[in-house]
Amino acid sequence: MAPIDALTLTGARRVQVFTHGIIPSILPSPLGIALYRFDENIRSSLVLGAEGIGFELLSAMSLFQYNLFRFCSLSHSSW
């Protein structure tokens, strides 16, 4: 609670306390979990093959074709 108390003692409004004190303390955890799950899903699709998309993703990453990688990963995640 130190950042929130420091912000209120310096005269920050409630919106400023929320955007600069509360959100930065809450955001890293869900963001880290989401990035971990995304990485885990990509790795499992490369290992398992995932209906042939694993080879496409691996070749796109090794050839630095990030647009193709993004298309393959987004099109597969909507199934």
Keywords:
79 residues; mainly alpha; 5 helices; 81% helix; 0% strand
Short description:
The protein has about 80 residues and is mainly alpha-helical.
Give the helix/strand layout.
Elements: H1 2-9, H2 14-26, H3 28-48, H4 53-62, H5 66-77
Helix pairs in contact: 1-2, 3-4, 4-5
Would you kindly provide a written description of the structure presented here, covering whatever features stand out?
The chain is mostly helical. Helix content is 81%, strand content 0%. It is built from 5 helices and no strands. Helix 1 packs antiparallel against helix 2 and helix 3 packs across helix 4. It is elongated. The termini are far apart. The mean pLDDT is 76.
Helix content: over 70%
Order of helices and strands: HHHHH
Question: What ranges have pLDDT less than 50 throughout 5 or more consecutive residues?
Answer: none
Number of helices: 5
Summing up helix and strand content along with how strands pair, one would put the structural category as: mainly alpha
Compute the CA-based radius of gyration.
20 Å
Largest sheet: none
Share of residues in strands: under 5%
Shape: elongated
Q: Report, as a whole number of angstroms, the end-to-end distance.
A: 42 Å
Mean pLDDT: 76
Per DSSP E runs of 2 or more residues, the count of β-strands stands at: 0
